[in-house]
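Dear Dr. H.,

I hope your travels went smoothly. While you were away I took the liberty of generating a structure for the chain from your last submission, since the lab meeting agenda had it listed for discussion. I wanted you to have the full record in hand beforehand rather than looking at slides cold. The sequence, exactly as received, is reproduced here:
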Amino acid sequence: MAVVEELLRAEGDGTISFGNHMLAAKAKLEDYEHGGNLYKVKTFKELTKLEKNGMFAYESEPGTSVNGFSETENGVTFKVEGSEDAQITVGLEEDTVYKVYVNGANVGEMKTNLSGKLNISVELASVGAAEVKIVK
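The corresponding predicted structure, in token form, is as follows:
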């Protein structure tokens, strides 16, 4: 995997990739159209944030690079890369229980809060990248 030099791009399989955890200064890209939706990304080494149609979709501290981000009615999947362990927040359905998998391992069930946000920690410092799957 690699950083997303263009900050946000559409992939051939219908997913999107975004973020650049290597940037020293903040960068953003707004009004990126994909699949009938408008995306906005802000990213640098300390934070990566994605909005879809003006609504929260993804945030990580510190910044990460995300490849193959896919949303369905049942959850999200993506590959995440970073230099340090990351705290990731994903926007999903409110007050709903999801199963969380990191690199194929079930790390448990988690419930979103009333705003639909789900928080997970992903170890990246020793491995550099991880595959995340969150499903109802």
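Two observations you may find useful: The chain has no helices and 13 strands. Residues 74 and 136 are 5 Å apart (CA to CA).

With kind regards,
E. W.
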